[in-house]
Design goal:
Blueprint lengths: L1 H22 L21 E4 L13 E3 L3 E4 L6 E9 L3 H4 E2 L7 E4 L2 E6 L7 E3 L5 E4 L5 H9 L7 E9 L10 H9 L1
Antiparallel strand pairs: 1-3, 2-9, 3-8, 4-7, 4-10, 5-9, 6-7
Length: about 180
């Protein structure tokens, strides 16, 4: 009988424990998940010229030459650079002025800051989209070019872009941004 009493007490204790724990409410909460998606960013640029690539020089004449750089829509705020590389004899034959809005960085490199509201706008590289043949160019100079076509003066324009911000709180300087590009 003792075994039955112990068993009965044990059943009552278990039953009582189930009833008590079933009536005790636990406060719990759960949020809806928040999914973070990180998208890409980029800077896309184009360099176009509609006037061709070969030009006839006549002393004193202005030659239409219209390289234009565009930072494409959807790009990030950036430094836009142009590098103008002249052949060794370019300055003997031709001259140009850089277009408004460009700042000389170093030697043959110019830059400007392009903000998001300027995306899609074409920026002229040369003032009035032209170069000028110097009026000091002589027939002898032209004859020398005709005899050796590898001595023809050239002007090569290349465009580059770099992100403007170094971090959330600081910006690159133009020199730092150019250094990132020119490495």
């Amino acid at each position: 009988m003792k075994k039955k009493t112990v068993a009965l007490l044990l059943v009552l204790v278990l039953l009582l424990g189930s009833v008590i724990s079933g009536t005790v409410a636990w406060l719990t909460a759960k949020t809806d998940p928040v999914k973070n998606t990180f998208t890409d960013s980029n800077i896309d640029i184009t360099l176009n010229e509609t006037t061709g690539s070969d030009y006839k020089m006549v002393p004193g004449y202005k030659i239409s030459k219209d390289p234009k750089v565009t930072v494409e829509k959807g790009s990030e705020k950036c430094y836009l650079f142009v590098k103008l590389e002249k052949s060794a004899n370019f300055d003997s034959f031709l001259t140009y002025t850089i277009a408004d809005g460009w700042t000389l960085l170093d030697g043959d490199v110019y830059y400007r800051v392009v903000d998001t509201d300027q995306m899609g706008k074409a920026f002229s590289v040369l003032n009035d989209d032209q170069v000028t043949v110097k009026d000091t160019v002589t027939k002898a100079m032209m004859d020398e070019l005709k005899a050796d076509q590898t001595k023809r003066p050239t002007l090569t324009v290349t465009a580059y872009a770099s992100q403007f911000n170094n971090s959330n709180n600081t910006n690159f300087t133009p020199a730092e941004a150019w250094e990132k590009i020119s490495k």
